[in-house]
Amino acid sequence: MSTSRRQFLSATSIAAAAAVPYFSGQSHSLADETAAKNDRVAIGLIGAGGMGVGNLKSAAKWIDVMAIADVDRGHADSANNQLADGKAQVYEDYRAILDRKDIDVLHIATPDHWHTKPLVEAMLAGKDVYCEKPLTLTIDEGKLIRKVQKETGRIVQVGTQQRSQFNLFVKA
What's the pLDDT score for residue 4? Predict the structure, then answer.
């Protein structure tokens, strides 16, 4: 698939226009608001280490953590207490979360070598996914994820910490 110059300019112009409020010093932002209960996103966390817990803490105003899976029960219980006041269902096997109809999005924060399998299974289960970087470790894993995403139409977003924190780069 090739992109014409016109398509590229149109897309980048829209993106730039959308980004202006974030860099213009506005005094009010969506970050200041809390979502109404019905507008909150129901999250399942797979991998309850520092990245997963940290990211979900920063999104606490807009989400409800409903389920947490980690092979280390201590990590899962700690995350449950920090993110859901102990009210989330805790699992040692992430596959138990995939069948839950009350989960809108899965946040995959497993070790780097363990992103592809739960991500593909989540899409096949009808879940949208936020996955920590790196998305894959091999080209074949990337091809598989792309294939399944195209087939399912699910949303997949990949974390890009330290690549999108504009203020840090301005200070540097």
Answer: 53
